[in-house]
Design a protein that fits this description.
Number of domains: 1
CATH topology: Rossmann fold
CATH architecture: 3-Layer(aba) Sandwich
Radius of gyration: 16 Å
Largest sheet: 5 strands, parallel
Helix content: 40-55%
Distance between the termini: 57 Å
Number of strands: 5
Strand order of the largest sheet: 3-2-1-4-5
Number of helices: 7
Low-confidence stretches: none
Order of helices and strands: EHEHHEHEHEHH
């Protein structure tokens, strides 16, 4: 009997996509047959880039990955309840990255709420790789805004776009 096609959803604002996000995407893609990177509109966070540009940057970073990652990872924008989106795309799991113990409490609560909304969709946590545990989009933007070097935290095309946005 052939196993069911497994679709995972990795949601986030990705403002901007960091090397930590990319690490989770690459690792999550090995656990599912298809991974959807779901870029949340999330205007409440006052993102630096609109959702279309964030999705385009995510796609550029994914396209540069080796192997068959780019063919199995899809980028979609969403502005609905995450569990509604996950149900619509027939996901079997939600992928969440954890950087530190401080992330766990929030993510644990969110996973519990999501399980109540749809118990058929599992939440899977991936720990950030050691070299990426301290990276956050918020810190990357702050460093860039103050003229610091962000080249070790994000892909080159992302760094270039962030720098452009603060230079204008």
């Amino acid at each position: 009997m052939k196993a069911a096609w497994r679709i995972g959803v990795y949601p986030g604002t990705f403002d901007p996509i960091t090397n930590g996000h990319t690490d989770i995407i690459v690792r999550a893609a090995t656990q599912v047959d298809e991974l959807i990177v779901a870029v949340a509109t999330n205007a409440g966070k006052r993102p630096l880039f609109d959702s279309e540009e964030r999705a385009a940057l995510v796609r550029k970073v994914i396209d540069e990955q080796s192997g068959d990652i780019a063919s199995r990872v899809h980028v979609r924008q969403f502005d609905t309840l995450l569990m509604a989106f996950a149900t619509d795309v027939k996901a079997s799991c939600i992928i969440r990255g954890l950087r530190a113990v401080s992330d766990f409490e929030y993510e644990f609560q969110m996973a519990g709420m999501n399980a109540r909304l749809n118990p058929d969709i599992e939440t899977v946590f991936l720990m950030a790789s050691e070299r990426h545990q301290f990276i956050s989009s918020r810190f990357v933007k702050e460093i860039a805004r103050l003229g610091g070097d962000i080249s070790t935290f994000v892909a080159p095309q992302v760094a270039e776009r962030i720098t452009q946005s603060y230079d204008s």
